[in-house]
Design goal:
heterotetramer; A mainly alpha (685); B mainly alpha (492); C mainly alpha (225); D mainly alpha (314); B: 492 residues; mainly alpha; 1% strand; globular; C: 225 residues; 7 helices; 75% helix
Chain lengths: 685, 492, 225, 314
């Protein structure tokens, strides 16, 4: 299909790539003018993202929805066709990335101002554009070659962006860890794709469709595992997640937002693509594995998040949690496909994809908020923050919406997708007679645990960061973020609310995706009453209407209003000091800390965290009147200390041992050759 | 115009013309011009080969087919880069008093001779002549390795010459056996010719036992020169101690030229035996080299040695790719040869700048934050390192993928997985090591050492070429590589 | 062997066998020898035998260009190189190889094994030999033991000598396996290469002695890992 | 849309009025059981009116979150109440959400309650928030499991539907699954409403209070809304227990007779539940904070057993 000015998804997509390209090149052209570089690159990125948005929306809605849009770009290397192929699944993910692209680019316009003179805005802008383009290309690639190239370019730019503040050793290590893990994942992907290629002799995704049925079972399982690991690394599944909490926090915050929002979603995209599109009818254990890993990731992710007092690390751990929740949906969908319940599978898939969108929106929102906070306070340590709600009112409000959404509180979007997940798990209980079905309610219970812990975590994150008195100088001096930064956050906040209140509208957009993957369109069935009430397909099985809840809540505000008018109209509010037990006023040191806040959880899950604490007191007369107390508390990251570090040590030790081979002695070298010679001579006889 | 002869004479003349030269500038200019000329000749040769298939001159003494033409292109490109870089490099060395003018002249005389030797290797029709051309490259390069006359460089040179000469003695024995195999049991008269063009037509009639022996000896002999493990032990020493332009030449093409000689034996052996005898050896040694290189990269303490091990890795990959012996893998391996030739010199040039600025190649001594002192160098180095590690959009990603893909296509799954694993491991090593020195905070040091723009031309040219050919493989080049692959498959 | 071979061929064959055996003997002596000057003489004698073999082949086969090889060997390996090495050794003033890797008895035993290996490798091809019996075996043995000599000794000069001994083995294989020797251009190339190689080695030995005040290659072990 | 405005208003009023009554009753009975006179059971009404009329002192460190919290707590509890069936099986707002939304709304209230506790910057508030969120987090799986048991039986998460489905022949109410789920849910009720083995609603002892600690800085009408919200939440949870796990007598049709019967049954069940709470509160001591997980995990195990028994003892 040619890509003239026909207002097709393909045209918008090509325009989007052109926009990102212009943004990247232009940013470099403005190397010496950071202001110009910022405006140009983020402006271009924003416009290009709008192009991507249009492309995705026109592919998913309107007359030709669900049609596969294919664009052949001219390729300069004979054996690599540059095929863009936007089907419904790809278009949905392009929608995710483009939506975030618009908001984050808007935010970056203001965010980059602060970097001027300190870091190269041009480099940031250029890499930012390339990363967005690469992520979009990952979703729009039509063959494995192009996909892998886009995948690696994405990893590369993400690495460069993570290493943006390369002066800090922490950043450097995080970048390397990210890149190494990512590359190992890519290795698995390469192998997986090549195994698929081996089976059909083509790289085209169109030819991979349902290819799994032609593979022998053993190989098919191998492909499944390879892709699970390969995409799992990028998605941050436990235990492949260790790069994520290291890398996301150190990147510039707009990049963190994109990384947590969409970069890790490329893993979800890949799994959905491969498991549902390529591999055909799944055996039961695939779904069980995915569901189990998802559940474990969700619980462990949120537990580790609770232990963090680095605001951005905390958010990064929450990404692991949410990826787990998404995978619970996907895993359940796989299990339903196996047991022959396509409608349920579609529901579970919808839950997963909906949560993908939601997580992208609220996590980006939270990272943008955290970015604004970090920019003002110059620290990521929550223990030095506080009191920001009074200083950064809008940012705190936006962050609060994000926090409520990620904690799955009604009436926001996080609740809707988790509700869908619960529903699919509940209904899944009846799909099979085997004991495996216990996984569904247990998964649901753990999902509830996850949600409640997430709420605890965000009470901590919001409460310690934004409420009470400032604990540090940076927080004391904080000012409201700039206008464009607020606009970017506001856009995402609006998206959070919209996705919560009007799920049916969004589910309509998802229809072509489920049509493609399971052959069913659900939005009609899920629509219970005029588009505002969402059901699970059977209205008697439960309905929700977040719009209704919100409206009813607003209506019920009448009750306090009436009570106030009736009884307390003449009351006055006086500002006074907080009760300080008769001391000389409260100081910030007396406030509850983030570490203190999560201590009960730390003690309850002692077995997992293996907390260590060191207390040193110095006192003059009595140990009860210490002059100084130093308190240190550590939580062990089990996967690092028990798996990765020993592994790393072993590899290094083995490598050092091998160095003996090259000990500098010419005699030894001659002996190597001599032995080779003798062996080969005997061999050649 | 006698293309082949000029290819040999132009650099030789440039080298000899440097003998009486008094000025470094003049010598550098001469070298550069000669390289430009050979590059032009190489391109012309490519056209001629594509047109005629085989080009011969001097009564078939010189002969070039697609494989030779491909090698000629690589040699000229890397030499051009090295000569562009060498001028300023030695100026800095002279300023720092690291070398005397006599030594610099030695470099500018020997490098073109080294180049001549390599051209001779790939253009010689006679297998015996090819042998002594390889020996000539070894002898000219060993003095280059010893140029700094430091203790360590003498040690490296000594190891290089001893292991190299011994290897070449074995290769000579292999050549002798090849001759004997060609003569066969019946003939009592002289072999009509020991020329490649003759041998390849007669190959199926060779004595099987002798050709096997001959290949094995050539494998060890030329393999030692090509740096295949376990004969590679000289390689990190020589690469790390030589002046950076020489390191670039050694790693960029010299290894491949030796491999070329080995491949000629491989083709003959395969043509004679018609079985996988030689390819399995290539595959085995290639894989072994790759797997051995990875841990050494991971715990290496010296920048240039690490780069040398990376070369070992790449040579291993090329060898394994050819050893897998499917059209796709051979194509990938040849492509990889080209991309590696464009990439590795950039790394060595950057390492040269770093060496001259920090007066050491030890990671520990260099410390972190090189980017603050040499931003441009670090930019090029990072890009080249990413390319060498196999990241897209650089071409090595494609060539590596092609090789693995070919392997899987031909059901050599285990081998492909091993290759992939080794590549992953070396990627991790390279990234981990370079991240120790390149990023980080540091105060810009005192003046001296490389300036910001030093070597930009050479590095930019090579890297630009890499990027260009990564995204655009011109049709003639593509055809040339395909024809070369056909030769290696034994189907030409 | 043709049935109606002229007598000169048979005589030639026997002479060649004897000379080859002599070369082997000199090689073994070289392995156990510690005095550098003696080693150089032994090498000269071995080369002389090689030249003789080349001469005999030239005569028997009436191949004038093999004479050239013989003459070149005579001039280069019997006269020039020994003189050059001799001068080096005298200049440096070290005359003894110290503590080789293996003791003399072990060396001899290992060399015996290598001889066996050489013959095993050469056995399938003895039918191909034009003149002499088992010359190819001797050649292989020379290569292998030369290699062993290189491993065994630690002085730079001895290593050069070992390299040359390996080269002798290769040349012997060349004349043993081919009626007329290699093409002349190859032979000439090899010869000049050898000369240049020894020159380069000489330069290096000189420089090493300058820097290290020794020609003990054990000291060359700074480059590791 | 089957939204009945009259039902909504009626149930709102019922919730508002009944909630302080339950709190007062429990307090009064508890005092009686402890041989004290105790406040009269209508004391909470008087308190609320008093609070509403009083001036407020607001902490100087507090932000807008502090002011928003009482409204959110109050409204979310009311909303949750409107989704639970009280007198008729058909809850007024059941279209807007079932048990999951109720749980979500309670979580929303708790979220803001905890934030309100943190905002003034007092250490007590922080401590209370921390403990409240912790206990809620570990109570949540047990609650969800218990809910699932009933929901799976009814194959619906709609509370009205669940009540109707449980409303079968009387013997089905006493199947082991429901009994165990009921007990689990009762433990969760104790935890969620801050009752004795978990929290002591009567104490203002600094280190043991949880819920009270968060309210420490609230005064005047904000305190009224907070307290009222807490009462409503307690009522909602008790209603859940009585009407979903034990829906005897609930009206399935809106005839006056059925409604009257339903009201009687509902009150009776609430009183029994309140009595049970009082009994537990007087006979037990408060658990140490780190022992609470044991209790709640027992609830979780019970709920899991309940679920297992739905298909093991069929």
């Amino acid at each position: 299909m040619p890509y003239y000015l026909d207002f097709s998804p393909g045209m918008f997509l090509v325009l989007a790539f052109a926009g990102y390209g212009l943004g990247a090149v232009g940013a470099l052209a403005f190397w010496k003018h950071p202001r110009g570089a910022g405006w140009w690159s983020f402006g271009c990125a924003g416009l290009a993202a709008v192009g991507g948005l249009l492309s995705a929306l026109s592919a998913l809605t309107g007359a030709g929805r669900g049609a596969v849009c294919q664009v052949e770009l001219p390729s300069l290397i004979a054996y690599i066709p540059l095929t863009l192929r936007l089907d419904a699944l790809g278009a949905f993910f392009v929608l995710v990335v483009s939506l975030l692209g618009v908001a984050v680019s808007l935010y970056s316009l203001g965010y980059a101002r602060e970097l001027e003179g300190r870091k190269s805005v041009a480099a940031l802008g250029a890499f930012y554009n390339v990363m967005l383009a690469a992520i979009t290309l990952v979703f729009a690639a039509g063959n494995a070659f192009l996909f892998l190239i886009a995948w690696e370019v994405m990893a590369l730019t993400a690495f460069l962006l993570v290493s943006f503040e390369y002066e800090k050793p922490e950043t450097r290590d995080a970048g390397v860890l990210f890149f190494v893990m990512s590359h190992i994942g890519t290795g698995c992907l390469i192998l997986g794709f090549l195994l698929l290629f081996q089976a059909c002799g083509s790289y085209s995704f169109a030819d991979f469709h349902n290819l799994g049925e032609k593979l022998p079972p053993g190989k098919r399982d191998a492909v499944f595992l390879l892709f699970l690991v390969g995409f799992g690394v990028k998605a941050g599944l436990v235990p492949l997640h260790i790069w994520l909490p290291a890398a996301h926090p150190v990147a510039p915050s707009n990049v963190s937002a994109l990384m947590s929002g969409v970069l890790i979603k490329t893993g979800i995209y890949g799994m959905t693509r491969v498991f549902f599109d390529f591999l055909g009818a799944p055996p039961n254990w695939w779904g069980v594995t995915v569901l189990a890993i998802g559940t474990v990731s969700a619980v462990l992710g949120v537990l580790y998040a609770l232990m963090e007092h680095d605001l951005k690390r905390l958010l990064a751990y929450h990404s692991i949690e949410n990826i787990g929740i998404i995978l619970m949906g996907l895993g359940a969908a796989l299990m339903f496909l196996h047991s022959g319940h396509p409608a349920l599978a579609s529901l579970a898939l919808l839950a997963g994809l909906y949560h993908t969108m939601n997580h992208a929106v609220f996590k980006a929102l939270l990272f943008l908020g955290a970015g604004a906070v970090v920019q003002q306070t110059h620290t990521r340590n929550m223990e030095d923050m506080g009191g920001l709600a009074r200083r950064m009112g809008w940012t705190s409000a936006f962050f609060l919406v994000g926090a409520a959404a990620i904690s799955a509180l009604p009436p926001l979007n996080g609740f809707v997708s988790e509700w869908l997940t619960y529903q699919s798990l509940l209904q899944g209980f009846g799909t099979t007679e085997s004991l495996i079905r216990l996984m569904f309610p247990i998964g649901g219970a753990l999902l509830a645990l996850t949600g409640a812990l997430a709420a605890a975590c965000f009470v901590k994150a919001f409460g310690i960061t934004f409420l009470a008195q400032p604990r540090g100088e940076g927080a004391r001096r904080a000012r409201e973020a700039s206008c464009s930064m607020l606009l970017g956050q506001g856009l995402l906040t609006a998206a959070c609310v919209f996705l919560g209140l009007c799920p049916i509208l969004f589910l309509k957009v998802l229809d072509p995706v489920t049509q493609q993957l399971t052959g069913l369109q659900l939005s009609g069935q899920l629509n219970a009453a005029d588009g505002l009430v969402l059901s699970t397909g059977k209205p008697e099985a439960g309905t929700i209407s977040m719009a209704g809840v919100a409206l009813a809540g607003l209506g019920l505000l009448l009750v306090p209003l009436v009570l106030w008018l009736a009884l307390g109209r003449r009351t006055k509010a006086r500002i006074g000091p907080t009760w300080d037990c008769g001391q000389q006023g409260l100081t910030p040191q007396m406030e509850y800390t983030a570490t203190g806040f999560s201590k009960p959880i730390r003690m309850i899950f002692k077995a997992l965290f293996r907390p260590r604490r060191e207390v040193q007191r110095e006192y003059d007369f009595s140990p009860f009147y210490a002059t100084t107390i130093r308190f240190e508390s550590h939580v062990e990251e089990v996967f690092q200390t028990r798996i990765y570090r020993p592994l790393n040590r072993q590899v290094l030790r083995l490598s050092r041992r091998l160095r003996v081979l090259q000990a500098g002695s010419l005699q030894a070298y001659l002996i190597y050759i001599f032995i080779t010679l003798v062996v080969l001579l005997l061999f050649a006889l | 115009m006698p293309l082949l002869a000029s290819l040999i004479f132009v650099p030789a003349a440039a080298g000899l013309a440097c003998l009486p030269a008094r000025s470094r500038r003049v010598m550098a200019a001469l070298g550069g011009l000669a390289c430009l000329a050979t590059l032009a000749l190489g391109v012309a040769l490519m056209g001629r080969v594509l047109e005629q298939g085989v080009v011969t001159e001097w009564n078939e003494f010189l002969c070039a087919d697609a494989l030779s033409a491909w090698m000629v292109l690589l040699i000229s490109v890397v030499s051009l880069g090295a000569s562009l870089y060498a001028g300023r490099y030695f100026q800095r060395d002279l300023e720092a008093g690291a070398v005397t003018f006599g030594r610099v002249r030695e470099f500018f005389v020997l490098t073109p001779l080294f180049q001549t030797g390599m051209f001779f290797v790939v253009l010689a029709n006679n297998m015996g002549v090819m042998w002594f051309a390889v020996e000539a490259t070894a002898l000219s390069s060993v003095l280059l390795v010893a140029l700094y006359n430091r203790r360590t460089s003498l040690e490296a040179a000594w190891k290089y010459i001893i292991l190299g000469s011994l290897g070449l003695a074995l290769a000579l024995l292999g050549t002798v056996f090849l001759y004997a195999a060609a003569v066969g049991p019946q003939a009592h008269e002289k072999l009509p010719s020991f020329n490649w063009s003759h041998l390849i037509t007669e190959a199926p009639r060779f004595d099987h036992g002798l050709i096997k022996l001959s290949f094995v000896l050539a494998l060890i002999g030329y393999g030692a020169k090509a740096g295949l493990a376990p004969m590679h032990t000289w390689l990190p020493d020589a690469h790390s101690e030589a002046p950076s332009p020489t390191s670039a030449m050694l790693s960029g093409v010299s290894l491949k030229v030796a491999l070329y000689a080995l491949l000629r034996f491989h083709i003959l052996t395969t043509a004679c035996l018609g079985s996988g005898f030689s390819r399995h050896f290539l595959l085995g040694f290639g894989l072994f080299s790759m797997l051995l290189a990875a841990p050494f990269i991971l715990v290496q303490k010296n920048l240039k040695r690490m780069l040398a091990y990376s070369s070992l890795e790449h040579i291993g990959l090329i060898c394994a790719g050819i050893g897998m012996n499917t059209p796709v893998t051979i194509f990938g391996a040849l492509l990889h040869m080209g991309y590696h030739a464009l990439t590795k010199p950039v790394l060595f040039f950057a390492a040269g700048n770093i060496h001259q600025t920090f007066h050491s190649l030890e990671f520990r001594v260099i410390g972190r934050g090189v980017i603050k002192v040499l931003p441009v160098t670090v930019l090029f180095m990072s890009l080249a390192a990413l390319a060498a590690a196999g990241m897209p959009p650089f071409g090595m990603f494609l060539s590596e993928l092609t090789i693995i893909r070919g392997g899987l296509e031909a059901r050599q799954t285990a081998v492909s997985i091993l290759i992939l694993a080794a590549l992953l491991a070396s990627f991790c090593g390279l990234l981990q090591q370079l991240s120790r020195i390149l990023p980080g905070a540091r105060e810009p040091g005192p003046d001296g050492g490389a300036r910001r723009t030093d070597g930009v031309l050479a590095m930019g040219l090579m890297l630009g070429g890499l990027v260009l050919f990564s995204i655009w493989l011109p049709a003639p080049l593509y055809k040339l590589i395909q024809q070369t692959a056909l030769i290696l498959e034994g189907k030409s | 062997m043709t049935m109606n071979a002229p007598t000169s061929t048979e005589i030639g064959a026997q002479l060649i066998t004897i000379c080859a055996a002599g070369m082997l003997v000199f090689q073994l002596l070289l392995v156990v020898q510690r005095m550098l000057l003696t080693s150089i003489r032994l090498f000269a004698l071995q080369s002389l035998l090689l030249a003789a073999i080349a001469g005999i082949i030239g005569y028997v086969n009436d191949a004038p260009h093999v004479y050239i090889v013989a003459v070149l060997t005579l001039i280069g390996k019997v006269l020039f190189l020994p003189w050059l090495l001799d001068r080096q050794v005298r200049r440096i003033g070290i005359t003894q190889e110290i503590k080789p890797l293996f003791s003399a008895p072990t060396s001899m035993m290992l060399c015996g094994g290598l001889t066996l290996l050489g013959y095993v490798v050469a056995r399938p091809f003895t039918v191909l030999e034009r003149l002499g019996n088992n010359t190819l075996g001797v050649a292989m043995t020379l290569v292998l033991t030369g290699f062993f000599l290189m491993i065994n000794c630690r002085k730079a000069i001895t290593q050069v000598l070992a390299l040359l001994a390996v080269e002798n083995g290769v040349m012997l294989a060349a004349v043993a396996l081919t009626t007329y020797g290699m093409p002349l251009v190859v032979e000439l190339g090899i010869f000049f290469d050898l000369m240049v190689a020894v020159m380069v080695l000489g330069i290096l030995v000189y420089r090493i002695r300058e820097s290290f005040a020794s020609m003990d290659t054990d000291k060359l072990n700074q480059l590791k890992g | 849309m089957n939204l009945n405005p009259i039902a909504i208003v009626l149930q709102t009023v019922l919730l508002l009025l009944l909630a302080p009554l339950m709190t007062g009753l429990i307090r009064n009975w508890k005092a009686k059981l402890q041989n004290r006179r105790g406040p009269p059971f209508w004391q909470p009404y008087l308190d609320l009116i008093k609070f509403l009329r009083k001036d407020m002192v607001i902490s100087e460190h507090a932000s807008w979150v502090f002011r928003a919290a009482p409204c959110v707590v109050f409204v979310s509890a009311l909303l949750a109440g409107l989704m639970t069936p009280m007198l008729t099986a058909q809850a007024p707002l059941s279209l807007f959400g079932g048990v999951l939304v109720v749980v979500g709304l309670l979580a929303l209230g708790r979220f803001f309650l905890a934030l309100g506790g943190l905002d003034p910057g007092s250490a007590f508030g922080g401590m209370g928030s921390s403990r409240e969120m912790t206990i809620a987090a570990i109570a949540e799986p047990a609650m969800m499991m218990a809910v699932f048991t009933v929901a799976i039986g009814a194959s619906s998460t709609d509370l009205s539907q669940m009540a109707r489905a449980s409303l079968g022949p009387a013997w089905r109410l006493f199947n082991p699954a429901h009994v165990m789920a009921f007990v689990a849910m009762f433990i969760v009720l104790l935890a969620e409403t801050g009752r004795i083995p978990v929290d002591n609603p009567a104490t203002h002892l600094e280190l043991t209070m949880i819920h009270e600690a968060m309210l420490l800085e609230y005064s005047g009408r904000y305190l009224a809304f907070m307290e009222w919200g807490a009462s409503i939440k307690q009522l909602v949870l008790m209603t859940l227990l009585s009407n979903v796990f034990l829906p005897i007598g609930i009206a399935t049709v809106a005839t006056p007779a059925a409604l009257a019967l339903s009201a009687l049954a509902f009150m009776a069940k609430l009183l029994v539940l309140a009595a049970a709470v009082v009994l537990v509160e007087t006979t037990n001591a408060k658990l140490r904070l780190f022992r609470v997980p044991d209790l709640l995990s027992a609830a979780f195990v019970l709920a899991t057993l309940a679920l297992l028994s739905t298909f093991l003892f069929r």
